[in-house]
């Protein structure tokens, strides 16, 4: 039985992708002792950071563009399928507890919807129309950013998301792990982290997934730094939603102010647990409402608020 034309076309496309290349030197890996397999995998993983480093200028340019739009009230939207989609959803879901962002400000879309986080949804990644529908539901504006994520750089859902977003005036970023990808070409900011063939042929949850996670970490974290969500390297916008984070909040306030435990507790109580506000209360000698006003006038930037207060 011969393959249909679409099948042949797809096979031809995949054969050109570095992420799909076969590693003949690993043909007998299943016969090796476990420690040796682990060492080989670890050596492969060690190359990922270097591949990301080569793309730092492109990553930084994209981050500055994202931060500019988010400062105007825009949203950061990740769109991908399979592992890439899950990584986007993961990064988005970690922004509210880490940076106290509104969950609607950083959004993760995965082809096939929430069910696809744990179970593959057949055909979802092959549908650019599904991406268009998912983004249309968000009502994109020119202040929003859509980051398409795809290891291959050809996934129709990711490419379709970027194409739709660009057509509607949103900023677009294409993150892939192959050179000259359709995804990067479709986006204003193309980021192509070429990690090479995978340890298991075509298993892009490995090096490609690690590379994508590193880049997404950079995009969200540095964007939030630019938006004043940190003070130095301290998470002063952390949302204290559990006991560990409440303890971290107290520790951060103490680190910045040098205040004793009693003063820290009093300041946090006076500011409804808001770390930045509590720091202002202690360093600027203001009350809770004044701290909130100073931060509002400073667009949430603690250093600027301290300057306004003369601290």
Tally of DSSP β-strands: 5
Low-confidence stretches: none
Individual helix count: 14
Radius of gyration: 23 Å
Roughly what is the average pLDDT, rounded to an integer? 93
Which percent range describes the beta-strand content?
A: 5-15%
Distance between the termini: 77 Å
The secondary-structure class comes to alpha/beta
- The helical percent reads 40-55%
Sheet with the most strands: spatial strand order: 2-1-3-4-5
Describe the structure.
The chain has 311 residues and is an alpha/beta fold. Helices cover 52% and strands 8% of the residues. The chain has helices spanning 5-15, 34-45, 48-53, 56-71, 82-99, 128-136, 156-167, 182-186, 207-226, 243-257, 261-270, 275-284, 288-297, 302-309, and strands at 76-80, 106-110, 145-149, 171-176, 189-192. A five-stranded parallel sheet has the order 2-1-3-4-5, with helices on both faces. α8 links the parallel β4 and β5 (189-192). The chain is globular and about 70 Å long. It comes from Streptomyces griseorubens. It catalyses: N-acetyl-D-muramate 6-phosphate + H2O = N-acetyl-D-glucosamine 6-phosphate + (R)-lactate. Homodimer.
What is the element layout, followed by pairings?
Layout: H1 5-15, H2 34-45, H3 48-53, H4 56-71, E1 76-80, H5 82-99, E2 106-110, H6 128-136, E3 145-149, H7 156-167, E4 171-176, H8 182-186, E5 189-192, H9 207-226, H10 243-257, H11 261-270, H12 275-284, H13 288-297, H14 302-309
Parallel strand pairs: 1-2, 1-3, 3-4, 4-5
Helix pairs in contact: 4-9, 5-9, 6-7, 10-12, 11-12, 12-13, 12-14, 13-14
